[in-house]
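pinging the channel bc i need a second pair of eyes. not urgent but kinda urgent?? the chain im working w is below, pasted from the shared doc
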Amino acid sequence: MHPELKGQVRDQVLMTLRQIIRAIDMHSRYLVAHHGLTGPQAILLSEILHNGPITGVELGQRVHLSKSTISGILARLEAKALIDRRRSQSDRRRYWLSASDKARKLLEDAPPLLQRAFVSKFENLPDYEQTGILTALLRVADMMGADDMDASSLLASTPLLMEESKSEAIDGLRMEEQEAPENHTEWELPRLEAE
């Protein structure tokens, strides 16, 4: 491959990664500003609502997060009266998690999770394209040294978003709106041209 073309490909890959991170970041800010939930909170709450009552261990397995990662998120959801924790009668070390009526109402009004929209589109792709995307993403994760990281990095792009206040999220959305392109073509990446 010609060195100039190679540089264009590299730059386009990096730009695409930034766009993915930005999409996750903007969606997480939107959830906080309009629904009072962070992306990780919305994902855990949705899992509890659709699969509860569920134990913390089962929840962690379903969303591919460690116990330590979900414990803080669950504490915040409980403080907001969005989940109930009940000690198991058969095993006193185990707690059952269920969503409250307040959580049901909140999730009815919330937009779909970014991941749900992705999953819907992904599942409509042919098998070979799904496998190709997986292969490429595994390679990218390995190249970035992220292949052994906790999946919570998929839920929010920065630690700040995990604890971001509603006012900070609104300010972030305003800033994003000011930077947003005027039309969709501005989001499109330039075409690579071989020499």
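so The first helix runs from residue 3 to 35. and The chain has one domain: 3-176. — does that match what u expected or am i reading it wrong
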